[in-house]
Amino acid sequence: DTGGAGLGLAIARALVHAHGGEITVTSQGKGRGSTFQVWLMAPDASRIVDKEKRRQGDWEIDKVTG
Q1: Could you write out the DSSP letters of every residue in 21-66?
Q2: Residue 64: what pLDDT?
Q3: Which of 19, 22, 57, 64 is the most exposed place for a label (fewest CB within 10 A)?
Q4: In this predicted structure, what is the pLDDT of residue 33?
Q5: How many structural domains is the chain composed of?
Q6: Domain range holding 34?
Q7: Model confidence over 34-51: pLDDT tens digits?
Q8: Residue 11 phi/psi, 5° resolution?
Q9: Separation of alpha carbons 60 and 9, rounded Å
């Protein structure tokens, strides 16, 4: 028996949705396994503060977003 309490998917779904993502599942039927896909948005790389500017102290806190 590989059954569980059924909490894993509920917890994963809540976490994914909290981050603005989506979770999907496909299955070929009982005993054949399932495939879960999690889709999350990647951060906008243009919003990352340049490390060199951070070392030089040439940045403001409102520039650190994402």
Answers
A1: -EEEEEESSTTS-EEEEEE-PPP-GGGSPPHHHHHHT---GGG---
A2: 47
A3: 57
A4: 83
A5: 1
A6: 7-63
A7: 888 999 887 765 556 565
A8: -70, -45
A9: 40
